[in-house]
Target: DUF72 domain-containing protein
Amino acid sequence: MSRSMERSESGAGRCNVGTAGWPLPPPMREAFGPGASLLERYATRMTGVEINSSFYRPHQPATYARWAAAVPGGFRFSVKLPKAITHERRLAEAEPLLDDFLSQAGHLGDKLGCVLVQLPPSLALNEAQAAHFFSALRQRHEGAVVLEPRHRTWFSDAGRALLASHGIGLVRADPLPCVDAGWPLEQCTPVGGTVYYRLHGSPRMYYSAYEEPCLQTLARRMAGDARQAESVWCIFDNTAEGAATADALRLLGMLELQSHAPAAQNRK
Model:
């Protein structure tokens, strides 16, 4: 598979692997190519990134355009919706804020690969309100959108149906946001052609690295997901002590091996 993990002749969807932000811890920098900025260096190895800073503050359109120009053509950005929409407005009366956000992030052009909507743990499913919000979002944005809810009411048949009706994918998070989720995330059918893994570190969130068997299982699942989805994302958010960068590089190597396995078998 190429560096960008593009859709192959066999129909496998592209895999976007990276971290939340592009911190590049100094001990890891030798694993990356040269570049005029950390983002340029990051994009010599990674295939995608999640912009988390947009959750806390807006960015100028020129900033998004500069980021888009700094990465190769196959690289993709996922951009996190502002907390002013998800945590302060709690999805209500958010249309003006959606317009502002999308007018800014839209300057990523075709490198805008996904919009991430993360909800606070206290926000329960209100079907009418959620339907109104996602309808407003879909009127403004046709691309991939995924949701990371953290209240158990979203993990229900009603929640699944609502998301499916708007083409919104459910984030496959680790650790699970609630222990009594009604259906296993790894068995979810891709919605809107997008599968999105978001790994926060376990057992210690934001710190713990993932062990080799876990990453191997993840690589196999992603290879399977890519056979039925347009795109598959895996973002490591265990960035507090730099584990995310190493984990993402290891996973990319495993996916590369997965992509070569069928060809090697056919030659035997």
